[in-house]
């Protein structure tokens, strides 16, 4: 009943670790296909693509699991239970983990999350391909700093209207076989001991018969000094959790259950019930079947990270791009553009491709490399300058522009890779643009299969100006279960200036900061050596610096002045927004944000680039909404690429060049400033998200432009007057009125009669369709009673009488002139019950 389930030799039951991750690709288990971060997948508004991605992830998961089983490896992240997707509502853009979600809308989240769950679990009636775990149940969306102690008292309306619908869709409609309870308390009871959530709603109303797992360490929060003060000790806490239906602890707290039984806090029958649920899941995964007896167990290593999967990652990145502004058809870039200045801290960032909870991509394409490859083929010149760090207070990757290889060629370092830890024997040599590598549980591609490796980077470094330069060597991406040793040294002009080593295989490594003085701005000989053993369980390595901000900005201005157009890669990074992080600087706190504006140093960079009067294209890489008000007013174009996954650089270049046509839509509201938002720790929905935000946003939920133009015609309802509870069928014709083939996302919104506390409108349907030039596609929607229902102050959901408006268009009502609406009159009242019949409960028979 703990995530690492011990072996039971007398029953020939092997040990098994339940903890695996697959948010947007198999994570923390070596090389895998890395798709766009979840918030980027949400921006595709493509349910079919989402399911196909999840099917691909589950194939790679089986490939990895089968290989691990053959090697006798039962360690963490090698199992078939995946603690994904995260279907919490991204109710406030300041939440650092919002990037892991499908945005702010329950319906969009439920549809995308449901497709992901179905893809992970497969459609075999007898066996799961993998098991999906919907998380974090419930009312969990920040702040990170108080998540272990916070008690949230949502109104009955908000609980039913916002915080639970997507979980109901995941468990009832998509039939996830697992759910993770959250850290926080809800209405005075920790989520993992909350009988209203875990017993009444989940098991009684929704007829869930799978297993519940706690968030990691959540049971300790019951009794810890900085937790909920709900239980006096681990025995009482564990007993309370199991009695409420939490079958599995991510952690070791349930070791106290033996003591709890002896104290009479819980009986063995309750424990037997939990164990039965857990073993049922293992049986339904086929874990006790003879090897090779089902098709899933025959998936081999060759089906991991394949070229076909890489193509799917590229398609996903294409579809995730949201074009927010495009004045005077600046994009796609004209063939008359001969020189492009690529500027910004995210142009060479691997981290901002990957997002968090990620696997390691085999061949990631960073934005600069993508543009260089794309536009070099067209005979166009690409200049690069880093321009600024992400934030002034933290170091950034040392860019390729200050390096040259040992032969004097600018733009990178000569790298020698050895399949051992002592730099002996022959080496594989290549040019690395910079030192920014994610080797989490892998060895570098040039020496794949080695049990240890070492790398020597050689060449020259040219400072921006004479003076001191601060450098940091950072062990990148080492999640909590590292098991390797490392050593490295850094030299300038033949003199070692920094070194570090660890002989403890569980030491994740410490960032090491050192300062080097340069008497001039000439090139200086550079060498860095890095070695690692136990490579299957290690991290990566990054060389960062803290350059003079003004010098870096001036270099960027010089590059911009030489160009016909400037493409600025700005935004955020998983290094400054994410889960419970030790980052406390202006605008950021503990993984969350305290401001939604672009960091000040990047705003200054954009302002300086704007002053050159060159056309400015702003490309955002980010996991949450940004108040890019300056760019909205002054930039020629804005493209949001999110954290786009392994093919991000290629996808961005394709959109800029016009070989891909953007059609993504925002899954979150972009507010004008933090001043438009209620307090972050206020969970009342009034005043936040498109449904209850009563002001004008910077960019609205559902917004996104295209290189094509579309018109909506012939909107028809199956009936203009409807008895409450009856279904509604809606059709509309969508015409591509342009000469450019493209995708359109048809969004259906329901606007209710005016009433106190009612939402502005709500999303009740959407479909992404591809339409050739001057062709028409008919789009149909079927709305059931739940889709047409409202929630009252007591939390009761019902279809109520009145005049409604059904709108279909490429954005929200009022934000597009191409949509159409029709009046719908509903007669009578029909309650929509939360309970489901046992006939619709999840069922899968394993023989």
UniProtKB/TrEMBL annotation:
Gene3D superfamilies, alphabetized: Glycoside hydrolase family 3 C-terminal domain, Glycoside hydrolase, family 3, N-terminal domain, Immunoglobulins
* Top-rank taxon: Bacteria
Q: Which SUPFAM superfamilies match?
A: (Trans)glycosidases, Anthrax protective antigen, Beta-D-glucan exohydrolase, C-terminal domain
GO BP terms: namely:
arabinan catabolic process; xylan catabolic process
Quote the Pfam families the UniProt record gives: Fn3-like, Glyco_hydro_3, Glyco_hydro_3_C
User: PROSITE patterns annotated for this entry?
Assistant: PA14 (PS51820)
Keyword Signal listed? The answer is yes
Q: Name one GO molecular function term.
A: xylan 1,4-beta-xylosidase activity
UniProtKB keywords: Hydrolase, Signal
InterPro entries named in the record:
BXL (IPR044993), Fn3-like (IPR026891), GH (IPR017853), Glyco_hydro_3_C (IPR002772), Glyco_hydro_3_C_sf (IPR036881), Glyco_hydro_3_N (IPR001764), Glyco_hydro_3_N_sf (IPR036962), Ig-like_fold (IPR013783)
Q: Which residues form the PA14 domain?
A: 408-561
The record's comment on protein family reads: Belongs to the glycosyl hydrolase 3 family.
The name this protein carries in UniProt is: Glycoside hydrolase family 3 C-terminal domain-containing protein
């Amino acid at each position: 009943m703990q995530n690492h389930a011990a072996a039971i030799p007398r029953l020939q039951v092997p040990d098994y670790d339940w903890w695996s991750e697959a948010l947007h690709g198999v994570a923390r288990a070596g090389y895998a296909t890395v798709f766009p971060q979840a918030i980027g997948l949400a921006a595709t508004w493509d349910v079919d693509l989402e399911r196909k991605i999840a099917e691909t992830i589950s194939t790679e998961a089986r490939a990895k699991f089968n290989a691990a089983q053959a090697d006798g490896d039962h360690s963490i992240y090698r199992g078939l239970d995946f603690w994904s997707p995260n279907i919490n509502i991204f109710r406030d853009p300041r939440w650092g983990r919002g990037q892991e979600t499908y945005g702010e809308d329950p319906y969009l989240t439920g549809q995308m999350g449901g497709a992901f769950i179905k893809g992970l679990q497969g459609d075999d009636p007898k066996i799961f391909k993998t098991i999906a775990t919907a998380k974090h149940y419930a009312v969990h969306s920040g702040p990170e700093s108080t998540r272990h102690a916070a008690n949230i008292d949502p109104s009955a309306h908000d609980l039913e209207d916002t915080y639970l619908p997507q979980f109901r869709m995941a468990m009832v409609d998509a039939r996830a076989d697992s759910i993770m309870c959250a850290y926080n308390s809800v209405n005075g009871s920790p989520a993992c001991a909350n009988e209203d959530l875990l017993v009444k709603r989940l098991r009684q109303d929704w007829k869930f018969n799978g297993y519940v797992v706690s968030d990691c360490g959540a049971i300790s929060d019951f009794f810890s000094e900085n937790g909920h003060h709900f239980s006096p000790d681990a025995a009482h806490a564990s007993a309370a959790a199991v009695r409420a239906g939490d079958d599995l602890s991510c952690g070791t707290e349930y070791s106290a259950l033996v003591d709890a039984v002896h104290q009479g806090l819980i009986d063995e029958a309750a424990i037997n019930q939990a164990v039965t649920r857990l073993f049922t899941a293992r049986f339904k995964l086929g874990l006790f079947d003879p090897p090779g007896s089902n098709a899933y167990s025959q998936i081999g290593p060759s089906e991991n990270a394949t070229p076909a999967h890489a193509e799917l990652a590229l398609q996903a990145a294409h579809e995730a791009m949201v074009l927010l502004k495009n004045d005077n058809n600046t994009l796609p870039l004209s063939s008359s553009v001969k020189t492009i200045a690529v500027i910004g801290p995210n142009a060479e960032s691997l981290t901002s491709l990957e997002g968090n909870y990620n696997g390691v991509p085999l061949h990631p394409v960073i934005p600069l490399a993508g543009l260089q490859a794309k536009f070099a083929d067209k005979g166009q010149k690409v200049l690069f300058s880093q321009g600024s760090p992400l934030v002034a207070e933290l170091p950034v990757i040392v860019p390729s522009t200050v390096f040259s290889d040992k032969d004097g060629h600018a733009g990178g370092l000569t790298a020698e890779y050895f399949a051992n830890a002592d730099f002996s024997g022959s080496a594989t040599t290549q040019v690395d643009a910079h030192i920014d590598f994610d080797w989490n549980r892998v060895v570098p591609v040039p020496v794949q299969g080695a049990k240890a490796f070492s790398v020597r980077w050689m060449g020259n470094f040219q400072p921006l100006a004479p003076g001191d330069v601060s450098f940091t060597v950072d062990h990148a991406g080492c999640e909590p279960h590292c098991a390797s040793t490392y050593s490295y040294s850094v030299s300038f002009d033949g003199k070692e200036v920094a070194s570090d080593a660890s002989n403890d295989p569980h030491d994740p490594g410490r960032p090491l900061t050192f300062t080097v003085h340069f008497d001039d701005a000439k090139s200086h000989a550079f060498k860095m050596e890095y070695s690692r053993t136990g490579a299957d369980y290690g991290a990566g390595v990054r060389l960062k610096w803290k350059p003079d901000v003004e010098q870096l900005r001036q270099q960027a201005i010089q590059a911009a002045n030489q160009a016909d157009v400037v493409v600025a890669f700005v935004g955020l990074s998983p290094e400054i927004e994410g889960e419970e992080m030790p980052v406390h600087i202006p605008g950021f706190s503990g993984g969350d944000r305290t401001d939604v504006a672009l960091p000040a140093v990047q705003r200054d960079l954009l302002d300086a680039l704007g002053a050159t009067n060159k056309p400015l294209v702003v490309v955002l890489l980010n996991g949450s909404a940004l108040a890019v008000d300056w760019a909205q007013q002054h930039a020629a174009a804005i493209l949001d690429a999110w954290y786009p996954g392994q093919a991000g650089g290629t996808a961005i270049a394709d959109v800029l060049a016009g070989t891909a046509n953007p059609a993504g839509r925002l899954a979150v509201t972009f507010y004008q400033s933090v001043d438009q938002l209620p307090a972050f720790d206020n969970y009342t929905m009034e005043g936040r998200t498109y449904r209850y935000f009563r002001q004008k946003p910077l960019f609205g939920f559902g917004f996104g432009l295209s290189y094509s133009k579309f018109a909506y015609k012939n909107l028809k309802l199956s009936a203009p007057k409807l008895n409450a509870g009856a279904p509604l069928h809606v059709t509309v014709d969508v015409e591509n009125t342009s000469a450019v083939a493209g995708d359109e996302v048809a969004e259906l919104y329901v606007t209710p009669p005016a009433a106190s506390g009612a939402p502005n409108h709500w999303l009740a349907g959407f479909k992404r369709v591809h339409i050739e030039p001057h062709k028409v596609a008919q789009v149909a929607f079927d709305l059931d009673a739940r889709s047409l229902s409202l929630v009252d102050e007591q939390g009761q959901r019902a279809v109520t009488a009145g005049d409604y408006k059904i709108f279909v268009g490429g954005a929200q009502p009022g934000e597009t002139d191409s949509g159409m609406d029709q009046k719908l009159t509903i007669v009578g009242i029909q309650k929509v019950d939360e309970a489901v019949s046992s006939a619709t409960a999840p069922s899968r028979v394993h023989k």
